[in-house]
Amino acid sequence: MFDSLIDNLNADKWAETDMAGKSGEWKEYHVMIHHSFKDETTLGIMVAQDEGDAKNVLIKDCQANKDPLKQIGLVELLLNAEETEVIGIDLNGDVVIRK
């Protein structure tokens, strides 16, 4: 059984919600295989939409050395305005957003 997304994130900085709690421009992204920790709680990943260029984004405030998107190939994300940081993750209805 897979952990819930929140099990891999700092619950003081992230909150679980449901589909009704989603707002903003969520998009579906392909997640590249190689992820790298910038420090023990900040994960760098590369994502791309079907018809777009790949971009590097950060997932901040993970649990120490925990990767919430390990072995995930496709996910719906909400990025910040600069498109540099993940502020929402929807993995098949398991939804978390930054507080």
Task: Describe this structure as you would to a colleague.
Helices cover 0% and strands 42% of the residues. The chain is mainly β. Strands 1, 2, 3, 4, 5, 6, 7 and 8 form an eight-stranded antiparallel sheet that branches.
According to CATH, the fold-level topology is: OB fold (Dihydrolipoamide Acetyltransferase, E2P)
Order of helices and strands: EEEEEEEE
Calculate Rg over CA atoms.
12 Å
Class of secondary structure makeup: mainly beta
Calculate the mean pLDDT score and round it. 94
Main beta-sheet annotation: 8 strands, antiparallel
State the share of residues found in helices, binned by percent.
Answer: under 10%
Tell me the name of the CATH class: Mainly Beta
Q: What are the segments in which pLDDT stays under 50 over at least 5 consecutive residues?
A: none
Shape: globular
* Count of domain modules: 1
Q: Could you say what the CATH architecture is?
A: Beta Barrel
Write the layout of secondary structure elements.
Layout lengths: L13 E4 L9 E5 L4 E4 L2 E7 L6 E5 L14 E6 L6 E6 L2 E5 L1
Antiparallel strand pairs: 1-8, 2-4, 2-6, 3-4, 4-5, 6-7, 7-8
Summarize the structure.
With 99 residues, the protein is an all-beta fold. Helix content is 0%, strand content 42%.
Q: What key phrases describe this protein's structure?
A:
99 residues; globular; eight-stranded antiparallel beta sheet; single chain; OB fold (Dihydrolipoamide Acetyltransferase, E2P); mainly beta
